[in-house]
Amino acid sequence: MSGSIKFELNWSALELGVPTKPYRGPLTFSCISTYGLHEIGIVARGLPASMELADIKKYFSAWGDVGTCSVLKSNGASKTGFINFRPPPLTLEFMDHDQQPVHQGVRGRTLEIDFTSQTAKDLQLREKGELKKRVIYTSANCFDMGAFLRSGRFLRQWRATNQCLVEINLNRRIIFLRFHHENDDYQIGIRFGDVHRQIVLDSSEEDVYVMYIQTTHPPFMWRRQEEPARSTPRSDNWCEENSWVRVPYIVDQRDDNDARISIGDFGAYRVCVPSINSYGELFKDCINDLMRFNLTSNKTNASIPSVVDTSTLPVIDIHSSFPFELAYLTECLIRAQKLSLYNISEEWVAFINGLDIAVAKNVLMRMTEARDVIEDPMVYSQRVLPELSSIMVNLKDISAHNIWVRRAVVTPSKIHLLPPTLELSNRVLRHFHQYQESFIRVTFSDEHFEKLGSSRELYQTLLDRFEEVLTEGFDVANRHYRFLAFSSSQLREHSCWFFADTPDGMDVNVIRGWMGDFSEIKNVAKQAARMGQCFSSTRAVKILTKKQIKEIPDITRNRYIFSDGIGKIAMSLATEIASIYNRDIIPGAFQIRLGGYKGVLAVAPDDEMDGYLVHLRPSQLKFKSDHTALEIIRTAEYIPAYLNRQIIVLLTTLGVPDQVFVDMHEKFLQEVDGILSNEGLSLKLLALHYSSSWVSDVLRKMVLSGFLRLGDTFTKNLLSLLKVQVLKDIKERARIPIEQGAHLTGVLDETNTLRENQVAVRFTDPHDPSTIRSYVGPVLVLRSPCLHPGDVHMAEAVDCPQLHSLVNCIAFSTQGRRDLPSQCSGGDLDGDTYMAIWDERLFPLQEKHPSSNASQEEISDQEITIRDTVDFFLNYIITDNLGEIANSHLAWADQTPESALSVQCVLLSQLHDQAVDFIKTGVPAEMVSSLRPSVWPDFMNKLPRKSYESTKALGVMYRSGAKRLSRNFKHTGDLAVCFDEKLVVPGYEAYIVEARRLKHEYDIILRDLMNQYEIKTEGEVISGYIQTFPSMASRKKDKFVLRETLGNVVNAIWKAFREKFDDFSAAAADDQWRRRKASAWYYVTCHPDEIELQKNREYWGVDDTDTPVACATIMHRQDEKPTFLSFPWIVHDILRLILESENL
């Protein structure tokens, strides 16, 4: 810009971002270049009062792309409008008086058109060379979508050439690609975080820059519609962003539903930008700016892809070439863009088919672990085959109650397929086990495997896509899968089961008919939930006869069912089940499924059972069924009591001082600090930090035997991971243990001994699980989630010898006006757990009446169809606002003096009850805008501009925990390996060769497991203390399932290698030989010379062309191979004996 141009700026106005005074410079606006600006804002004064907002937008659209448009003020005779051009017009001549276009609405008028203060400021900064590039726009010649093939070739599968525009937004860290196709404008958004490796820029051609982008996830895509996608609160304001609606595909022919171009079918993009104009240079400069985001490189040796078209490449039909198991895994690879259909050769197909089916599956499973596109599947398969053939561990026989489950994730752009994972079985899958390949669990999510937000209008086009899958099904490997059913927990995760009809006549209708008779249930939500009972993850323990089952009446008073959901089980049968679960102490209750019954069975003496094994009540019967297999969901067990944000909010509302929680928080942080150096503190934390993993018990025994004092690296790694997990829970959830408390299964006093408001609390000692304790005295009882102050209650705990068999349970009285469980967040006894707290510091100073918990059902007078069930599933996705309600409640409680008793919180607690019951009633909770907070406390981690520093207990605790976590405790797993001579037993040398071979096999299996589930460190996969979950497990339920799956698989691996260890000859099976062999396992794992051998690339079966297995390393640098240390702890019991004998 010429230095002679001056602007009369109003600096106070500039700071406020309001329009400046009119420009009065000597030159015309047409002399001003818009080069380097990402937007231009103008104010137009003197617009006719008759002009509507749409007229103003249309008028100025003749000169450029209008991003926003609004009417600032109107005085009756004229209007003042604000117009923002994004990207800016190439010329500003329309701003000059003698150049203004003639328009019927402004004929005869001269408009005053001026820059906004921000635009004027941007022009000044550009003149000084100080304008930072925030957003860059440039036109493009074409835009290609496709994939990368072997030898650096780009496969062009679809092309756009009309009105192509590139926007690189450094502020939002996203690249937008816009184009016009047929009658529509489309926009694709590629997040910086989704770019795989780096963007490749080809500047070898004279007049064009070519940009290649490969992505890890399909980008979002939008289509422009004529009217705004959402009406704005003010009719005098229009924003271009609201004209874009999310869509799953590009429509090639409007009247042909099959002519769809799905963005999910492509994994790479090619953009051609002209370099001959100034914007081409600006584009190249912006590409260089992307280096600070690690998206581009200044290296000149980047390989430039060549371009090929699909018409020149042959395609093999993999579905007819492979049996289903192999075709499914191959399709997993193709849909994950790890293998291109165009890279598959007939030779590779023949090679895979020539292998044993188990070996072939393992080869394909190994391919699913690849981090990049597999350019040549034949080379890859031949390289991994020898390794797989010698070390395969058969995980099919892990146990009879687990099953391999296939999964699909339906996103707006595509259907992802996941390799089979091991999960706890259910009634349906056990009965139809011969059709296991025909079942698939399907989850509906957004592109990054996150839940879709609840908004019918915004996501309608995406819901249409989901509806199509649910009603019409989808194809995988020549099988057509159709909707079957879902459980309540699956519905919360937007998941359900599909089934593929089989040639012998098995289909979804046959399976539903076998499940039971649901015809008498006239509420679609309740019927779906009852069908879902059959899909609860269970373990079948015994087939009962009808003569062993007796129905007994419910205990009802004042319309309250005191016995809601609970029955009885004979002590003899409970003992049998405890043996199956390897429990030394018989649990006091079992959560069960038995035909159409559900709920809890509490242990009762055999002489009280009238010769029956099970007593069931009418409140437990949910539908008619002839099945008599007793299925266990879980057993009663001790779970430590923990504070959380909701409980802290309620207790402070009821008078407990903030300082109580701050003191508990600080004391616990100090204890966590010392767990790596203090055995007592580490054992205490292991006892208080609940984990159902068998590894927790192993770790506790290792600490007791002195391995922490020894400085054992593996022990310290696991404790470090536990430490980080605990600190994250403190920071993000205010999760602080309550030592004087327990989380127990709710049961009923069948002896009628307890008086009104009395309970019996009995549990195993967390520090000595062989000891059973009872608590006597005042006790606080509550159930999570709890949002209403009336959800917490004081009771009297008494010791009742008649109820001593109810271990790890809290027994409630059958007397009084109303049962206590229903007063605790609307609880019952069909599996709910209750927190019992006897820490007097946490006793509330006042009590409030409980909410009514009344819910209404939608009753249908017609037969409920599967289409009704599908519609309910979709409606749940649209209105799933449970998390939003809970978060809003937390925010209002922090910023209102009445806290949880504020009007907003009371209304939100009622909405929360309604949202929780939506699964059973079908009545959604409608969140009104007035209950959505405009600002949030800092402990909720919202955007800084919408956050404030909370001065209440949660805010103080959050900032203290955040400092502690960021300052000291990010686990890297890079502790120096400790080798202790105390564990070297003379004569170990005889087993060294075998130990090296077995450790190598073990390490490869463990590495593959880590790669399959994207787990970064050995400690995480062994312990379950996972620091970073893979994108496929972003939801709470998925995280739980992943931990459970990993625990089952690791346990099976350890059992398999323990059998190898125990393979002694009769002459060498004495205790000393076992110690020598265990010592050899320790030596090959921890001795410095052995560790150096394991760092060689040959050890891991890779060559110099492979990408380092960075995702499976516990070392600092990606060029090092992992050092795995868990191998000898498969025989931890023998190593403990060696160490304990040395310490005598």
TrEMBL record:
Biological processes annotated in GO: siRNA processing
InterPro entries, per the entry: RBD_domain_sf, RDRP, RDRP_C_head, RDRP_core
Domain RDRP core span(s) in chain numbering: 410-960
EC annotation from Swiss-Prot or TrEMBL: 2.7.7.48
Highest taxon, organism lineage: Eukaryota
Keyword Chloroplast: no
Signal sequence residues: none
Reaction it catalyzes: RNA(n) + a ribonucleoside 5'-triphosphate = RNA(n+1) + diphosphate
Enzyme class: transferase
GO molecular function: RNA binding; RNA-directed RNA polymerase activity
GO cellular component, one term: nuclear RNA-directed RNA polymerase complex
Pfam families the record matches: RdRP (PF05183), RdRP_head (PF26253)
UniProt keywords, alphabetically: Nucleotidyltransferase, RNA-binding, RNA-directed RNA polymerase, RNA-mediated gene silencing, Transferase
Residue ranges of domain RDRP C-terminal head in the record: 979-1137
Similarity comment: Belongs to the RdRP family.
Protein name: RNA-dependent RNA polymerase
Species assigned in the record: Basidiobolus meristosporus CBS 931.73
